[in-house]
């Protein structure tokens, strides 16, 4: 490691335990920076001392002497960049060098001193400083424990710990991380990716190389590989981390579906945390067939797409820290899948949401609400588009075209089975045309309208509803003894005195004069009636009864009847409106009694 002697300005070389205490400089590069070759020439140092690139090094040495330090490290002159081997070693060691520095001086060349005509609000300039937009300065901010910020005139602005809250708002980095109160490894891969999402580097490859220390990675530098460097970084991270959040990126924002092409694809990453539950994440790795994964899979009505349940959660900091489990829609067959872009590339499946309950019997655990997260795990591969498509292209084309519905409905239900179908099969639906079993969506078009009885306010409640019916595999189609009906509905209210009287049931938003914009309600219930399933007239009667209950405000998002549970806790918007603009995820379980026994056993084992 080369260091500048703060007194003689000569560069000296140290190794191992002989490295003395030193200060380190963090800065943004300008047009004419000093180099190792120029600095080692004493005459050049003297004649160029007023140039910005040389002057800030001299100022760094002066500040180090004031702080009682004899040595400083500056990247522009302490690395001989003409040697590719030395450059590679330096970049792989840089996080450690910053971390071990006694103090780091951050020189902000675009921030004027307080009280000058150039800028009366120094901290406003701090927010706009170019230093916070550069890739390399991310590790230079996080790694050192003691950091001081200086203006362009070397006026001290403050220390990192004192400015932690302000810096956190600028960078999105948790203040506890800046203060060294939490370790880097306490933050998920996705969270750390978001810290770099808006940063830039001059070389494309450096966007990956500047993150080596953030993820504790060492790898060779291959300038010229372009965006592949960031892909290679993610492959290296997978070798040392079992954090599923590395895959929690938006494929719609990435040129690649297996790995993200840029940190900006991790738009939700700041809220995604490792799931410190009772279940360890099983190892996963990169193979020549793609990522070999082992996670629970949630089935749908379609044989060509499933949801992979990951061991990481999105935490809603603005809503009582409620958690949502990250699920990835996957297209494919025979446990060979690729990431999906439709209907959505990431689903945050709510697991802590407040439920509206309606249960006919005691559920046994969890205050009456069962955790439907599947425990059984499946071995499968997530591969590149080309590999999966070459094998199942025709079938996948048919499946994906099913999402193209015209005209696009505003809302619908996505039907899923966290524990599989447990010996049941789809029997029918009312209305049948509303069920798209090829894509596992139920998009109700049947309308039921009721006007308000109040003379002071003309209010209208509108319901879009239907029934999906399942039947035991062991019975013939004409035997209704083991049929299960699932009632699904959207409920909206419109008022004639609203500021916007054009609201309708085909949108998930309605407007009233007193409460402003409101979410449309939705309902899910298990129907206890059996005899109607082959009788359309009786089905209409059951629908009418269920609609009346919904109009009375009985709108559960979770319901159990006998051995069946239906839950509709998760709502999301599809980026392309395929097959509908807004979707509610419906989870159906046909073996509730077995689920209760399993969850009770888990509670006993945990105690």
Automatic annotation (TrEMBL):
Q: What is this protein called?
A: Heterokaryon incompatibility protein domain-containing protein
PANTHER family per the UniProt record, alphabetical: HET DOMAIN-CONTAINING PROTEIN
The source's domain of life comes to Eukaryota
Query: Any idea where the Heterokaryon incompatibility domain is?
Result: 22-120
